[in-house]
Amino acid sequence: MADKNQGGDKTEKPTRKRLRDARNKGDIAKSKDLSSAISMIAWLPRACHGEPFEATLATLGASAFGLVVLVAGLVLVPAAAAGLIAEFLQTGALITTEKMKPQLGNLDPVEGLKRMFNPDNLFELLKTLIKAALILTIIWVVLSGSIDEVRGDPPRRGVEHRGGSRPQDGGGGARSFALAHAAN
Q1: Which of 93, 98, 134, 146 has its CB 3.0 to 4.6 Å from that of 25, i.e. a possible disulfide?
Q2: Residue 22 domain-assigned (yes or no)
Q3: Which stretches of the chain are DSSP H helices?
Q4: Could you list the residue range(s) of the whole structural domain that residue 161 is in?
Q5: Is 10 domain-assigned?
């Protein structure tokens, strides 16, 4: 009996019919990293040519509604559009439900664990963790000196406030202390 996962190199090239059938089923070679990279690059012009970062943070920290509108309108929409365009350029205009159909064979826990912990998936996990760490590091470097602006506080001049006596703190001295140290 033939093994389920007949891998290896094929000796013959696939026929046009097989390629067309695979495409109709949604089996298309494409890069997830390309779409992510294009989305991130689409965000860069706004980040580089927008208003000064501190002014943007003070404005956004003061208005939650403004934050939602700004993030959705200026960051997420162009990034999502760039991702959709990148997907379209890789696969063309293809809408199929074949990949969404439930398959009982996918419920086998042993096969699921084999798929989950195969070397390819572990490598993809490692790549994703490295990308996330890189993005979080960049965000931390950019935001670490701007905690007060994010909170909507005026910039500190010389003396740091470490207590909870300000009215907006509501007596939360520990929170103020933690935020003051997070900014340093």
Answers
A1: 98
A2: no
A3: 16-25, 32-49, 53-62, 64-70, 77-91, 109-116, 119-143, 147-151, 173-182
A4: 108-184
A5: no
